[in-house]
Amino acid sequence: MVMYGGMPLPYPDELLYSVITRYHLRMNNSSPKWTFRELFGTDYVIPTLDLPSHFDNLSPRSQIMCITSDQWIDEHTLYSYYAPFLPQSRSRQLKQMMRSNDGSGIHTLVGITASSMERNSELHFCPSCYEEDIQRFGEPYWHRVHQAVGVMVCPEHRIVLHRITHPVSDRHGLTVLPIARHLFQSHPLVLPIRERTHLLLH
User: Fold this and answer.
1) CA pair distance 154, 56, nearest whole angstrom
2) Cis peptide before 52 (omega within 30 of 0)
3) Bridge partner residues of 162 (DSSP)
4) Backbone phi, psi, residue 165, to 5°
5) Global pTM?
6) H or E stretch covering 196
7) Which residues of the chain carry a pLDDT beneath 50?
């Protein structure tokens, strides 16, 4: 794992939340508030999985990595999944809210709050990506594409995504993807399905 100034360099398509959890582990912080204070300059941060905020606070702390607020938002959140379906003025407003210190109206702006489709309340992973990440980077991480609403099959490996079932407790409030497969149990998001359904989901 490459680190600059203590903050991990994000992996390809890694969710910001995942970067935060890896930093939290490396720093061995006993409280997520310490982690948020170190990364964002404040502990009043809710580590939202899909559309987090406070990026203008995070960006100066990652300057040595040459990652701007917009790059964090475009490449490590679900902003790019929602923006194409919003009017241009609203997508610009969304990005500004994500950069600011007040993200309280983000999901209302996007329409998620009023939507009949529920946001993912738990993190998902692909077993094949998990093994490949360990071989390639030495550790697994939460992939952004696997967290998008409605995604149940890994687009690369064409296998059903999994969710952790045991242990379900988080590490001091942050859900970490364990580094060894024997440390946790998981189940696929959907039961065995017909090939046609599998192809449709893919």
Assistant:
1) 31
2) no
3) 125, 188
4) -110, -20
5) 0.88
6) helix 195-201
7) 3-4
